[in-house]
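Chapter summary example.
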Amino acid sequence: QVTLVESGGGLVQPGGSLRLSCVGSGFAFRDYTMSWYRQTPGKEREWVASIISIGSGTTYAGSVKGRFTISRDNAKNMLYLQMNSLKPEDAAVYLCKAVQIRPYTGLTYWGQGTQVTVSS
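The structure predicted for these 120 residues follows.
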């Protein structure tokens, strides 16, 4: 059974930091590009950042570039998102996504999400 489970969300004041984690199981984690998305009520799911399957290639949405850092540990099947200088507009449910690229099939898995609230 494939699972992606996020954790690390919570309430933080503006300017604060949080580190989100996502653990994958039931699939070959290292063969998947991993991404973070976020969603708020009434809005479309927004892409935040991605990291390729092997190596350190990363990409970020403009709204988080310079503040957020995505990383992974393939040995532990873990994906991380370090979020610094948080703003109220960063509040959302954050979800991790896995897409198989080796071989490329497009097979996609999603986690259930973890809530991030940014408020004073």
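To summarize the output: The chain has a mean pLDDT of 96.
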